Amino acid sequence: MTESRTRISKAVIPAAGLGTRFLPATKATPKEMLPVVDKPAIQYVVEEAVTAGLSDVLMVTGRNKRPLEDHFDRNYELEEMLRHKGDGDRLSRVQESSDLATMHYVRQGDPRGLGHAVLCAAPHVGQQPFAVLLGDDLIDPRDPLLTRMIEAQERYGGSVVALLEVDPDQVHLYGCAVIEPTGDDDIHRVTGLVEKPSREEAPSNYAIIGRYVLDAAVFDVLRKTEPGRGGEIQLTDALQTLAQNPDLGGPVHGVLFKGRRYDTGDRADYLRSIVRLACEREDLGPDFRDWLRRYVAEEM
User: Fold this and answer.
1) What's its EC (predicted)?
2) Which of 94, 173, 235, 274 is deepest in the core (most CB within 10 A)?
3) pLDDT tens-digit profile of 146-180?
């Protein structure tokens, strides 16, 4: 780590998607606000950023996303009602979200892809490296992926992506990476990236999941990146440019993640996420696991 390198303090969370896979639930409610047990999915993501030492969070939002801002703001009427009732437990849980971090918001406007959403953060981020966390991926707090990615960026510079080894039949759902080893078992040099390739065209089965630590040089590359797959500006395409042209602000490395990840962007995986997290809760787990065992036995 060089003396001049800036400690990362800012996180960007793109949250402008329409959540069409969860309609009609997301007709009037942002998908990021769908509950995972008793907290909205987006709160888990902000908590992860804060745990990794990031105190400044920018959400890139769109239309109908006002509930996101309300959730991370104070609700004085509700707090006063709980205080009057002497319900300190619920009061502390309500206040927890508004005390997590310094929150900022910017609207994406036209939905032109993840790369464009990240570019919307440029005025706020400035010239320092920053993290990007996608709300569909929840990383178990016992597996400090983002902390490890920040360590990798501080050591190697450039940008860092999170990699997950997936079944070859699933690679078309992700961007995937061509990698080569470094001196660290879980850190790899990324030499190429492809956005959602077919199984036959995929260069590997190392998928990029929704965590990034990016050098601010990515903004200049994104400004010059033409729309790619789906007619959108793809962050993967900009990272491919950086991987192949390290002098522009590279290199690009990947941290291979082998921990617990909950995909809340898919309906079936969303339900599995709720069950897994509920089973592990000290307050809910014992009774819920007993009920689940009986239910499964009855259905067999």
Assistant:
1) 2.7.7.9
2) 235
3) 999 999 999 999 999 999 999 888 888 888 898 88
pLDDT in tens, 181-228: 888 889 999 998 888 888 888 888 899 999 999 999 999 999 998 877
Other CB atoms within 10 A of residue 26 CB: 18
Instruction: Provide the domain count of the chain.
Output: 2
Tokens of 275: 């069950």
Identify the domain containing residue 287 by its residue range. 266-300
Q: DSSP characters for 113-130?
A: -HHHHHHTTHHHHTTS-E
Q: What tokens were used for 186?
A: 């879980």
**DSSP letter assigned to residue 161:** E
Rounded to whole angstroms, how far apart are CA atoms 274 and 177? 30
Establish if 5 belongs to a structural domain: no
Torsion of CA 125, 126, 130, 136, to 10 degrees: 40
Same domain, 249 and 276: no
Beta strands in 75-123 (DSSP E): 102-107
Would you give the DSSP letter of residue 158? S
Can you tell me the distance from the alpha carbon of 250 to that of 242, in angstroms, rounded to the nearest whole number? 5
Residues 207 and 286 in one domain: no
Asked if the bond preceding 123 is cis, omega within 30° of 0, the reply is no
Q: Which residues contact 241 (CB under 8 A, 6 or more apart)?
A: 221, 225, 248
SS3 category, 227: coil
Angle at 183 between CA 177 and CA 185, to 5 degrees: 65
How is residue 251 written in tokens? 């290199």
> Does residue 162 share a domain with residue 87?
yes
